[in-house]
Amino acid sequence: MPEQATRGPFGLRLARHGYLPALAAIFFLLMPFAHAVDAPAKPVPDTLQQRVAACTACHGAHGEGTPQSGFFPRLAGKPADYLTRQLGYFQQGLRKYTPMEYVVRGMSPAYLQEMAGYFAAQSVPYQRFPTPPVSAALLQRGETLATHGDAARDIPACQSCHGTQFTGVQPSIPGLLGLPYDYLSSQLGSWRTGTRAMAAPDCMAQVANRLDAADITAVSAWLATRELPADMHAQLAGSVTPALRCSVLETNAPQATMPSGDGA
Amino acid sequence: MKWLWRCMLVLALVVVALLAWWFFRSPSAQTGASQISATDAAALRDPALIERGAYLATVGDCASCHTRQGGARYAGGRMLPTPFGSIPSPNLTPDPATGLGNWNFEEFWHALHSGVGRDGKLLYPAFSYTSFTKTSRDDARAIFAYLRSLQPIHQPPSESGLAFPYDQRKSLIAWRALYFKEGEYKPDPARSAEWNRGAYLVQGLGHCNECHIARDALGGMSDSHSLTGGRIPAQDWYAPDLSMQKNGGLQGWSAQDVFDLLKTGQSAKGTAFGPMAEEVTQSTQHLQDDDLRAIASYLQSLPPRPPVRQEASAIDVTAIIGQGAKVYEKNCADCHGMDGNGIAGVYPPLNGNSSVVEPTGINATRMVLLGGFAPLTAGNPRPYSMPPFAQQLGDADVAAVVTYIRQAWENKAPPVQERDVGKGRNTPID
Fold first, then answer.
1. In chain B, positions 284-303, which contact chain A (CB-CB < 8 Å)?
2. Chain B residues whose beta carbon lies within 8 Å of the beta carbon of residue A51
3. Which of B162, B180, B161, B108 is nearest to B139 (CA)?
4. Which residues of B touch A88 (CB under 8 A)?
5. Model pTM above 0.90
6. Averaged over B254-262, what is the pLDDT?
7. Closest by CA position to B213, among listed B232, B199, B195
8. B365 close to B421: Cβ distance less than 8 angstroms
9. 44-83 of B, contacting A, C-beta below 8 A
10. Which CATH number fits domain A130-251: 2.40.160.20, 1.10.760.10, 3.50.50.60, 3.30.1360.170?
């Protein structure tokens, strides 16, 4: 018996399998269109991590900082308010580093706060960095400065503000551990040369200017070589009684230059 | 014949003396009473006038130049870079000692309209009076009322960074004679009200031409090159040609694209960056929709441009483009696409992008080095960003990838040299 021909839609001659192959053919023909309309090749993730690619290129996707050198510092787990303030300081030119000043220019306080929150919430293992060879005597001097300060020269202990474990204090005092020697010593140096500052009263500028070069080496080396405590989180707010007046300890909201029009 | 020679000599001396007098006379023709009269002061406190002035000051983006980094708005102190040295912007707040506190409107008008300061001193054209001269007297008065309503900030002027001879304000007499045409905007009756509004804003308060024009060695510009694009001196960005017609920098843009870029910082054709990003954030995003449409309408009327002659490259760039394609695929294609079309609303297209194909290549080079966020605006409050590649790519790779994107797809722009990338690394960001 000859094959029974049937007529399908649009008068197509269909074999005895009827409509099914035709439907399948139409389905597959239309597939690419459906695909193009419904799902672009690769949707851009609507995440903060995707939005802040300009930050993570240097600081790492989770704010882990540059591996090995630590040249671009770790941001992960630093107190959110501390990070927000630093972004504002770059915006105002209190902290000088051209690429950072460029990237935060024109950003709103709300967005900077959101970025700070993202990095504050990241939790990645701490790295260890190489430290320069320093004498035991110098390390001892570093330990004394960090834990007791030097009353004769009006230098408070690091501990008195940065927490008993040196892991920082919420909401805006950063920890000092897990940072490379180069980073610690260059920050203290920057406070002396005026390329890093905070809104007045700037307690760290006072402290850094009371330290001499050997003090900076000593305290940075001691902090950089210290074993990390199991809990690296910043201590609770109000758990320290700072020795100096400092803008970061005052309750006013972080300052950032809000780009705004005047009439609109 | 001796008497004739004597007469000629005397005549020549008289002419020289007259010229000298004309050149070196004090330009302060008027030094009227400088205090504001009581009635004038009261009129300037009209809230409606102040509000209009606030809007116009935003259109003029006065705050951008007259605010230093981290400083009080309008208190001045930003160092404006020019090829002749940096010029600090003055304090516009009504502080009597260091700001405009003792100025009356006539003095303000004289500065904005004629480029002459209160004591008769000629103002440097870093203050864009070359454009602001087109502003109407009514609008100037509103701006003055607004500035007087600000909180007075005591902030003495910063020191000028100008070197000799540019620190001699008298040298501006010659500059002004060459380049400054004083006069309010004259509406063109043959055009629509919208077009005239757009022309008024673009040529006047918007002072678009201060960047979007090529300047000569003396920092001057000529009318015939109006809005045809140019390298911004000292800042080293290229402000593209703004013609939307054939061969124009914005060829292929619609009025909506112009509107979108000015309103939100990005359009289907590209995203604002560098100095334009600041302009959008601080000024254009706050403009009324009608004004933005007027600007687009005016730009649409800019004439077509002559075709750019493609000069055959002296060097064979095949290998460089090959290298650039590899760099592109690895670092750029995820966001901008292998087809160079970007992702609508998120990442700008590079194909046909006026800033990619502008004549110098400096924009693409600096974008690759600096990266950064799209402008933050009310329409785009959490912008996406581009990673900086300065720390990751060497000069050769940057030159290769920029050359690649300038010649891929429909783009046909000259290659970028490795040595130009190095220069781009050292350019200040301000």
1. 285-288
2. 382-385
3. B108
4. none
5. no
6. 98
7. B232
8. yes
9. 51-58, 63, 69-70
10. 1.10.760.10
